[in-house]
């Protein structure tokens, strides 16, 4: 099982959004994504393609773990991310 996480931050994660699918994660992160005018006008599918090409200011990461639920706190999500990234 897996889910997706969108993270943003220059030196540490400042914003984090999750979704069961890439599309759901992008939809949940639209408040962040739309802060860049060049991304606000493009579709969720295009955002996913740009993320896969590593051409965005934020990251879309596949997390190989069970869905943590909607109400998991930020610190727990950071811990899941760090354990996945080996840090």
Radius of gyration: 12 Å
Order of helices and strands: EEHHHHEH
Low-confidence stretches: none
Classification by helices and strands = alpha+beta
The general outline is: globular
Overall mean pLDDT stands at 91
Helix run count: 5
Residues in helix, %: 40-55%
Which strand order do you get reading across the main beta sheet?
A: 2-1-3
Note the main attributes of this structure:
three-stranded antiparallel beta sheet, 18% strand, 5 helices, alpha+beta, 87 residues
Molecular structure report:
The protein has 87 residues and is of the alpha+beta class. It is 41% helix and 18% strand. A three-stranded antiparallel sheet has the order 2-1-3, with helices on both faces. The radius of gyration is 12 Å and the shape is globular.
Concise account of the structure shown:
The chain contains five helices and three strands, in the order ββααααβα.
List the helices and strands and how they pair.
Layout: E1 3-8, E2 15-19, H1 22-28, H2 30-33, H3 37-40, H4 44-52, E3 59-63, H5 74-85
Helix pairs in contact: 1-4
